Structure formats: structure tokens, C-alpha cells
Amino acid sequence: MPFASLCMAVDRPSAGEAGREYGGSGSLVVKSPWGRNWHDGLGFAKSRKEQLPGGLAVSQLVNAEKGIVELRRQSLRTKILLLACAISLFTSVIMGVAASLRIEGEVSRYAESNVAHETRLIAQQFKGAYDLLENDAFVISRTPPIEGIIRSKRNGGLDPQEESTIDQWRSRLEMIFASIMEERPNYTQIRYIGIADGGRELVRVNRTADGSEPVPVDMLQRKGTEPYFQRASMLKPGEVYLSDVNYNREFGQVEEPQIPTIRVAVPIFSSRGTMYGLIVINADYRALLTSYFNTLSLKREVVITNDAGDHMTRYSDGTLSPFVLHTDTTHALPGGLLDRPEDPGQSEWVSHDEEAMAYSVYLPVSQSVNDSHIVVTARISNEELYAPAKESALQSLALSSVLVVVILCGTAFLATRMTRPLSTMTKSIEMAMHGGTKLSLPTDQNDEVGMLAIAFQNLIDSRNEHDARVQAVIDNVVDAIISIDAYGTVLAYNPASEAIFGYKPEEVVGQNIKLLMPERISVEHDGYLATYRETGQRHIVGITRELQARRKDGSLFPMELSVSQVDLSDGSYMFTGIVRDITERKRMEVMQGEFVSTVNHELRTPLTSIRASLGILQRRIAGKIDPKSEHLVDISLKGCERLGVLVNDILDLEKIAAGKMDFYMAEYQIGPLVEGILERHQSLAEINDTVFELQNEIDGQYCCLDASRFSQALINLLSNAAKFSPPGKPIIIRIAQSAADRITVSVADQGPGIPEAFRSKIFQRFAQADSSATRSKGGSGLGLNITKSIVEAFDGTIDFESVEGEGTTFFMTLPICAAPEEKGAPQCQAA
Ligand code: ADP
């Protein structure tokens, strides 16, 4: 099948379309190695929306290529944008998180210090209530009625100093008490209690619903058993006593409604230095706290408690919790808030829980002997605590977002500017490729793009130069070069093709290659291509074959076709065939065959008869005619013999060249074989007045050969040695084992040797040394060439060593084979 695998195209385009519309247009897309003037049909094939071997429509491929270029251009810009986006986002996130953490820390510290400040202030303010209580008690203790009552008591009811009766002093003191109570709505009682008479009250004013009311003398009680009285009665001058908070008791019973009461007591000493009594102020501790809390405008949860644990909470919305007396175990203090640190010196502490932060201040509230304290705790919810941090985080997030957008816009602008020259360059290249416009690259640009353009321009220039050279070769080559696609459509057709086939390029490009095939081959061709496409099974690709082709005029001619597959960058492939018109060669071969046949029949046959006749004639006339005539017959006979040898040699040569020489291979013991040949051809030596001396150094080895052809080769060497050997000098035939598996048969003479200049040609046909020795010996120059072919047919080699003036030795080296009788030994194969 000629052209069988020459092809591989995409479809079956028409010649007209190929030439007119598409010729050459795609040569830059899938680069034709054949150059500008090379009529290629790749453009045609690509434009036909035909399927490439990979199943991709050609037009799709072209568009895809454009798309890829576009995509790549966008991709670079997108990559820059993505990179900028990633960097700015990363930076923003890192900076935002760092700033948030820092701000959160700062804000919480700030909030903490604010809360601490507020808490301290609250504690100090509430301590003012205690101060006021103590102060009021001291102020009362220094009012004149206090001394006046003592003096009038001691002087029988009349104060000699002020001339006032005790009742007058009492009523004055009641007025003072009343006016103070008017000022202090939380005071429930103010009393002047005497030490004498079991702690009897001397003056007392009670709080009433309307205001205050002095208690009549007969209603005054003895308070000597009350704990606060007992503790206060031990006070020294200037000291003050502050009681625990408990419910007020009257006449030994807890008064209803229950009023949590705190009492402050200061001692009254007489001028003699003995304790006379106590000023005791009862205050409603719950009211004290309530009124204080009501003055707070701060929206913060605040808990105030004292040493005993009596506490009250004011919530951030301004509502108040019920007052809880320390004896009320059902309402414990808010968990954890008031846990004082171990360190007694630490008067302020912070505690956090899931919902809030609490700041506590531990403050001594009294100068009293019993060392009273309050603990004020302000709670701030985490939400409130971190609200400023959150707000600032949101602000920084908004700022970061704006920054990211600005960076992206800037980057998009810059990326577009940076990649624009590249896209311009790409468009220019695309237009040059598809539209044939001149390629214009920004080589004068003074940056990387300019450098890229210069490098690209250099590449294009070198490619163009290379293409031009290839083009010149393609245009001038004598062989036809034709490319086809996977379906057999001709893609390219060089000028030599036109000369060989007679078709013009436009008549062939786009047509199926079958146009150039004889009928019997073309019917099979599509099948070969289909098989190759489906199975990859090759028919002719990669080998050279002699086939027949058809010219435009329909005549057939012999051609030598070499097909190679060319893989294209898009994954498809095409085939390129080199077609050589071998019409002339075939004619010569026919002539040669005819000549050999002529020599064989027309020369050898009569020559044999002439030689035989001359032989008979020579024997018959021996001694009967004059010596000159006898000599002439002798010369004629020798001439016939030499001519016979020459004719045989020429015929052998032709057989060898045509591969038609027959070899009948068999295992032979090489020693006896050589010995027999020598015996039969001793005359060769004798004619030349020499002898053959055999040196057999081997013992029974076999070689695989054709005995007759081996004999022909050896006789040629013996004949040459005898011819060139000086008379009387023996010719040594040596048989030796030259390697473990090789036997060498050498023929050594002591002749003139082979001239240095001739040695490289000695095995060529008709090669004869240009020496007087050779000229005088005669010969055809074919013997060694035939000998070499014979030895090589036995898988052997032939070589020689020669020293001019000393002699020549030829070596035939043959592989040893197993003896024929050896069981299982491989048999000789016919060559
Ligand atoms: P022919 O002997 O018929 O001319 P050959 O091919 O046998 O052809 O030999 C070719 C040439 O090689 C000879 O003409 C001769 O010049 C040279 N030659 C061959 N054998 C020898 C030898 N033993 N000594 C010197 N020259 C030789």
C-alpha cells in the first residue's frame, strides 16, 4: 500500500477551498517547517470546523488559542489583583486584630480605672453618711443642755450656772434633737442616756410619721442591758462607738415594723471626769442606703455592704434591691463580688466573670473604737466594658475595608497599565499571525516589556532566517515532500512534487492524497488511515518502501517513499512523506539484470565451449606442431580460463548484490576441511613455484558454513598469496583458536605486501593496487570483495596485516559451533 501511512488529515476539503481561501493562513498557528512559499493546507484544515484527532473542532481550536491568549493576559492582571487583595486583606486583618487587641486592652484598662475611680467616689460619698452621723453625735454632745442637765441634776433640779431647771434644759435638748432630725430624715431616734439608774434615758426624741416627737419622762427606758450601751459605756473621752446594724428594740422587744438600725454613741463626761451619759443617734440604715443610692446618677450596679455583711444593691437601671440584714441567710451577698483578697493591705480589687467586671473598694468608715468598714462594689457588664473597644474595632474594620477597596482600585489601575503593553504586543503578534500585517513590537520601550519585545523580535528574526533556509532546501530539493493530515488531506506540497506528479499545488492541497495513487492502492488507503487513528497500528510510517504512484496524466511510475509522523503542538499530528522518483533507477536495474543474463548465457556458455575445445586441441597437438603455435594455443587457453574466472566472479557479485547467492550451511570440522582444500589446490602453489604449509593448531572444532563457498573464499586468498609470493618462499596456512568461540584461518605470504594507500580500498569491487607487482599478476579486483561477502555470510570477519616488502597475512575468523552429533545442539541455519 503506497502512501498508506502517508496520511492523517482532519477531513476532506476541496482543492478550491484549500488553495483560495485558506492556503498558508494557518502556518504560524501550527508552524509549517517548510516556509513561506510552501503550499500548505494547514490553514484550510483549521478553518473547516473539522475534527482534529483529539475531537476538537479546528475553528474551536483557533478560537481557543485566542481565548487562551486573552485568558493569560487577564490572568496576569487577575493574579496581580489577587495578590494585592491577599496582601491588603492580610495586612488589614493583622493590623486590625493587633489594633483591636491593643484597643481592647487600653479600653478595658481605661474602663477599669474609670470604674475604680467611680467606686472610690461612691465609697467616699457613702462614708460621708457615717461621718455625718458621728459628727452629729459629737456636735450634740457639746451643746449646752448636755452640761446644763448634768449641773441641774446635781444641784437638785436647778442649774445654778444658767439658772435653768432640768426640765428647761431637757426641753431645750429635745428641740435640738428635733431640729437635727428634721435635717436628717434617716435618723429614727436621738437620745441622751444617763449612765446612772441602769442606763436610763434622760432625753429622747423619736421619729414619727409627721416628723419627730419627744418622749415623755415617764416613757423613758432603761437601756443598761443593751449591748450597744454596755460597749459605749466603756468609751473614753473623744471616742465614738458605732454599733452593728440590727433591728431596733423597744422595751426589750424588736420594734415593728422592723427597722435595721445603726447607732452611734459618744460619751458625756462630767467636769469631774466621770462618765455621765451617752449621746446615741439611731439611724435607719436601710433608709441611709436608699437615700444615698437615690442621689447616685451613675448608671452602674453598685453594692454596698459592711463588715457584718448587711448589704443593698442598686442596679444599673436605678432600681434597688431589698435591704438584706446579715442575719438573713436567704439573701447572701452577690457571689464572688465581695471576696476580699488575702492581703490585708489591699483595699481595692477587681474580679471578672462571664458577664461583668466588678471593682471593689474596702474603706474604713468610722473613727469608732470598733473599726467599721464598708465595701463598695461597682459592677460593669462586659458588654458595656468592651463597647468602646467594639466600636473602635468596627471603625477600624470600616477603615480597613475602605483601604482595601482603595488599594484594589489602585492595583487594578496599575495592573491594567502594566499589562496593557503586553496585551498590545500580543494583539500585534496575533494580527501578524492571522492577518498578515507587519509585526510591530514595542522594542523601544525602556523597561522589561521592551526587553521582552527585543528578545521576541530576535526570536522571530532567527526563526524567519531558519525558515528561509528550510524554505530554500524545500524549494530546491529534487524529492517531492508532501504533508497530509490524519484523514489523508494534503496539507503541503513542495515545488519538486509539481515536477514529479505534474499537478500544481492548488490542484492537490486540500485534496485527498489518493489523487496521487493508482486505483488498486487508493481503495485501501482510507482503511489504513482509519486503522492508524483507531489502533495506532502502523503500515508504512518510519520505513522506506518502493511503491507505485500516479501522475496527473494517469501514468504510473515507481517511487521510493519514506513517511514520518510529525506531532504538532496542539496534540494532533500529520504525516510527511518524501517521494523519490526511481524510474531511472529501476530502468538501470532492468538493464543490469539483462546484462547479467547476457553475460551468463551469451558469454559464459560459448566461453566454456571454447575453453573445452582449446583444452582438447592442446592435448591433441602437443608435440605435433611448431612450438610457437603451441604457445599461442596455450595463451588462448589461459586467457579463456581467466575470462571464465572473471565471468564467474561478476555473476557471483551480482548474486550477492541481489541477495540471491545460495548458502548451504552445515557443521564442518575446520581442520580437515582446510586440509582437503589445500590438497586439491596444491597446483596453485606449484604454478608459482611455492608450497602451502599447513599449521593446524586446533583439534576437531566445528564451524557452521557452506563448504563450497568457504573453499571459494580460501582459494581466493591462496591464489592471491601464491601470485604475490616470491618463488621458493612457502605460504603458511595456519588454523588457530583466536578466542573462546572463534577460529581464525590465516594465509601468510612473504610477498611485496599491500601498499599503505591501497589498504582502505582493498575489499572494494574492482580494487587493485596500482603497483607493478599487481599489474604483472593480472586479476579482476573482485576476489577479496566476494571473499568478504562469503565470510560475513558465515557470521565471520576478514582482515589482514601487511608490511610492505615483507609480506601479507589475511585472517578469516569464524564462530565455532557445536558438533553435529551433539544432542540438542543448534543446527546450522541456511544463510
Ligand atoms: P585480484 O587478485 O583478482 O586482482 P583481489 O580482490 O583478490 O583481486 O585482490 C585485489 C588486489 O589486492 C590485488 O590486485 C592486489 O593488488 C591486492 N592483493 C591481494 N592479495 C594480496 C597479497 N597477498 N599480497 C599483495 N597484494 C595483494
From TrEMBL:
Domain Histidine kinase, chain residue ranges per copy: 598-818
UniProt membrane topology term: Multi-pass membrane protein
Localization per Swiss-Prot or TrEMBL: Cell membrane
UniProt-listed GO biological process terms: regulation of DNA-templated transcription
Top-level lineage group: Bacteria
GO molecular function: ATP binding; histidine phosphotransfer kinase activity; phosphorelay sensor kinase activity
Name assigned to this protein: Sensor protein FixL
Source species of the chain: Alteraurantiacibacter aquimixticola
